[in-house]
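Hi F.,

I've been meaning to write this up properly since the lab meeting, where we talked about keeping a consistent format for the predictions we share between groups. The idea is simple: the sequence comes first, exactly as it goes in, then the C-alpha coordinates exactly as they come out, then a line or two of notes. No screenshots and no reformatting. I'm using this chain as the first example so we have something concrete to point to.
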Amino acid sequence: MVQPWNLRSATPADASAIASVHLRSWQTAYRGIFPDAFLDGMMDALATRTERWRTGLEHPIPADSRTYLLEIPGGGVAGFVACGSAREAHAGYPGELYAIYLLAEHRGQGLGRVLFTACRAYLASLGYQCFYLWVVDRNPTCGFYRALGGTVIPELTKQATIGGTAVTEIAFGWNDQDVPGPARP
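Output, unedited:
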Protein backbone atom coordinates (compact mmCIF):
# COMPACT_ATOMS: atom_id res chain seq x y z
CA MET A 1 0.00 0.00 0.00
CA VAL A 2 1.20 3.48 -0.88
CA GLN A 3 2.30 5.38 2.21
CA PRO A 4 1.87 8.00 3.32
CA TRP A 5 -1.61 9.03 2.36
CA ASN A 6 -4.24 11.28 3.88
CA LEU A 7 -7.96 10.57 4.07
CA ARG A 8 -10.23 13.50 4.88
CA SER A 9 -13.75 14.84 4.40
CA ALA A 10 -14.17 16.81 1.21
CA THR A 11 -15.21 20.45 1.14
CA PRO A 12 -16.67 22.53 -1.71
CA ALA A 13 -13.11 23.78 -2.40
CA ASP A 14 -12.26 20.20 -3.47
CA ALA A 15 -14.90 20.09 -6.21
CA SER A 16 -12.45 20.54 -9.10
CA ALA A 17 -10.12 17.77 -7.88
CA ILE A 18 -13.06 15.41 -7.33
CA ALA A 19 -14.50 16.16 -10.77
CA SER A 20 -11.13 15.52 -12.40
CA VAL A 21 -10.66 12.18 -10.62
CA HIS A 22 -14.26 11.25 -11.45
CA LEU A 23 -13.87 11.87 -15.17
CA ARG A 24 -10.33 10.49 -15.52
CA SER A 25 -11.36 7.31 -13.67
CA TRP A 26 -14.33 6.85 -15.99
CA GLN A 27 -12.00 7.18 -18.97
CA THR A 28 -9.90 4.23 -17.81
CA ALA A 29 -12.47 2.03 -16.04
CA TYR A 30 -14.92 2.11 -18.94
CA ARG A 31 -12.47 1.89 -21.85
CA GLY A 32 -13.77 -0.89 -24.10
CA ILE A 33 -17.27 -0.63 -22.64
CA PHE A 34 -18.23 2.82 -23.91
CA PRO A 35 -17.11 4.40 -27.21
CA ASP A 36 -13.64 5.94 -27.19
CA ALA A 37 -15.01 9.23 -28.58
CA PHE A 38 -17.42 9.51 -25.63
CA LEU A 39 -14.68 8.75 -23.08
CA ASP A 40 -12.07 10.94 -24.76
CA GLY A 41 -14.48 13.90 -24.72
CA MET A 42 -15.35 13.61 -21.04
CA MET A 43 -12.81 16.18 -19.86
CA ASP A 44 -14.70 18.77 -21.93
CA ALA A 45 -17.35 18.52 -19.21
CA LEU A 46 -14.91 19.26 -16.36
CA ALA A 47 -16.35 22.71 -15.58
CA THR A 48 -19.91 21.36 -15.49
CA ARG A 49 -18.93 18.37 -13.37
CA THR A 50 -16.96 20.63 -11.02
CA GLU A 51 -20.01 22.82 -10.47
CA ARG A 52 -22.20 19.76 -9.82
CA TRP A 53 -19.74 18.51 -7.19
CA ARG A 54 -19.43 21.98 -5.61
CA THR A 55 -23.21 22.27 -5.33
CA GLY A 56 -23.47 18.72 -3.97
CA LEU A 57 -20.83 19.38 -1.33
CA GLU A 58 -22.41 22.70 -0.30
CA HIS A 59 -25.96 21.30 -0.18
CA PRO A 60 -25.75 17.50 0.08
CA ILE A 61 -28.76 15.42 -0.90
CA PRO A 62 -29.46 13.37 1.14
CA ALA A 63 -28.39 15.71 3.93
CA ASP A 64 -26.23 13.03 5.60
CA SER A 65 -24.14 12.43 2.48
CA ARG A 66 -20.41 12.44 3.02
CA THR A 67 -17.50 12.50 0.57
CA TYR A 68 -13.97 11.49 1.55
CA LEU A 69 -10.81 12.32 -0.40
CA LEU A 70 -7.69 10.21 -0.50
CA GLU A 71 -4.63 12.40 -1.03
CA ILE A 72 -1.10 11.32 -1.84
CA PRO A 73 1.47 13.89 -0.67
CA GLY A 74 3.01 15.48 -3.73
CA GLY A 75 0.52 13.64 -5.92
CA GLY A 76 -2.74 15.37 -5.10
CA VAL A 77 -6.10 13.66 -4.91
CA ALA A 78 -5.84 9.98 -5.90
CA GLY A 79 -9.47 9.04 -5.28
CA PHE A 80 -12.70 9.64 -3.44
CA VAL A 81 -15.76 7.91 -2.06
CA ALA A 82 -19.24 9.36 -1.52
CA CYS A 83 -21.95 7.71 0.58
CA GLY A 84 -24.91 8.25 2.88
CA SER A 85 -28.58 7.36 3.15
CA ALA A 86 -29.95 5.43 0.20
CA ARG A 87 -31.32 7.72 -2.50
CA GLU A 88 -33.80 5.02 -3.55
CA ALA A 89 -35.66 2.85 -1.06
CA HIS A 90 -34.69 -0.82 -1.38
CA ALA A 91 -35.87 -3.16 1.35
CA GLY A 92 -33.09 -4.01 3.76
CA TYR A 93 -30.55 -1.51 2.36
CA PRO A 94 -30.84 1.88 4.07
CA GLY A 95 -27.32 3.03 3.10
CA GLU A 96 -25.74 3.63 -0.28
CA LEU A 97 -22.23 3.98 -1.62
CA TYR A 98 -22.90 6.58 -4.33
CA ALA A 99 -19.48 6.74 -5.96
CA ILE A 100 -16.00 5.36 -5.46
CA TYR A 101 -13.25 6.32 -7.88
CA LEU A 102 -9.50 5.89 -7.86
CA LEU A 103 -7.08 7.05 -10.54
CA ALA A 104 -5.66 4.17 -12.58
CA GLU A 105 -2.08 4.76 -11.43
CA HIS A 106 -3.15 4.17 -7.82
CA ARG A 107 -5.18 1.00 -8.34
CA GLY A 108 -3.95 -2.33 -7.03
CA GLN A 109 -2.24 -0.77 -3.99
CA GLY A 110 -4.96 -1.19 -1.37
CA LEU A 111 -6.19 2.40 -1.66
CA GLY A 112 -9.62 1.39 -2.96
CA ARG A 113 -10.03 -0.66 0.19
CA VAL A 114 -9.12 2.40 2.27
CA LEU A 115 -11.87 4.41 0.57
CA PHE A 116 -14.37 1.56 0.92
CA THR A 117 -13.53 1.15 4.62
CA ALA A 118 -14.10 4.88 5.22
CA CYS A 119 -17.52 4.55 3.61
CA ARG A 120 -18.40 1.48 5.71
CA ALA A 121 -17.36 3.25 8.90
CA TYR A 122 -19.39 6.34 8.07
CA LEU A 123 -22.48 4.30 7.17
CA ALA A 124 -22.10 2.35 10.42
CA SER A 125 -21.95 5.66 12.33
CA LEU A 126 -25.37 6.43 10.81
CA GLY A 127 -26.63 3.06 12.03
CA TYR A 128 -26.65 1.45 8.58
CA GLN A 129 -25.46 -2.13 8.77
CA CYS A 130 -26.58 -2.81 5.18
CA PHE A 131 -25.84 -0.80 2.07
CA TYR A 132 -25.60 -1.12 -1.69
CA LEU A 133 -24.07 0.48 -4.77
CA TRP A 134 -24.92 0.59 -8.47
CA VAL A 135 -22.37 -0.37 -11.13
CA VAL A 136 -22.41 -1.18 -14.83
CA ASP A 137 -22.32 -4.98 -15.01
CA ARG A 138 -19.28 -5.03 -17.33
CA ASN A 139 -17.21 -2.70 -15.15
CA PRO A 140 -13.98 -4.47 -14.09
CA THR A 141 -14.45 -3.20 -10.53
CA CYS A 142 -17.17 -5.83 -10.02
CA GLY A 143 -14.35 -8.19 -8.97
CA PHE A 144 -13.20 -5.62 -6.39
CA TYR A 145 -16.71 -5.44 -4.92
CA ARG A 146 -16.92 -9.23 -4.73
CA ALA A 147 -13.52 -9.37 -3.00
CA LEU A 148 -14.89 -6.95 -0.39
CA GLY A 149 -17.80 -9.29 0.35
CA GLY A 150 -20.42 -7.65 -1.86
CA THR A 151 -23.03 -9.82 -3.52
CA VAL A 152 -25.22 -9.00 -6.48
CA ILE A 153 -28.79 -8.20 -5.44
CA PRO A 154 -30.67 -10.10 -8.17
CA GLU A 155 -33.86 -8.06 -7.95
CA LEU A 156 -32.00 -4.77 -8.45
CA THR A 157 -31.08 -4.21 -12.07
CA LYS A 158 -31.85 -1.38 -14.43
CA GLN A 159 -31.21 -0.56 -18.05
CA ALA A 160 -29.51 2.67 -19.08
CA THR A 161 -28.00 4.29 -22.14
CA ILE A 162 -24.67 5.99 -21.49
CA GLY A 163 -22.62 7.53 -24.25
CA GLY A 164 -24.98 5.96 -26.79
CA THR A 165 -24.37 2.46 -25.39
CA ALA A 166 -27.11 0.38 -23.79
CA VAL A 167 -25.89 -1.11 -20.51
CA THR A 168 -27.23 -3.03 -17.54
CA GLU A 169 -26.62 -1.61 -14.10
CA ILE A 170 -26.55 -4.03 -11.20
CA ALA A 171 -26.49 -3.49 -7.46
CA PHE A 172 -23.99 -5.02 -5.07
CA GLY A 173 -25.08 -5.24 -1.46
CA TRP A 174 -23.41 -5.72 1.89
CA ASN A 175 -25.54 -7.18 4.66
CA ASP A 176 -23.30 -6.33 7.59
CA GLN A 177 -20.27 -4.30 8.52
CA ASP A 178 -17.98 -7.31 8.93
CA VAL A 179 -16.32 -6.97 5.52
CA PRO A 180 -12.59 -7.61 5.92
CA GLY A 181 -10.14 -4.77 5.58
CA PRO A 182 -8.28 -2.64 8.10
CA ALA A 183 -8.73 1.11 8.27
CA ARG A 184 -5.88 3.35 9.25
CA PRO A 185 -6.68 5.68 12.15
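Notes:
The longest strand covers residues 151-162.
Helices lie at 15-29, 36-40, 46-58, 111-125, 142-147.

If this format works for you, I'll send the rest the same way.

G.
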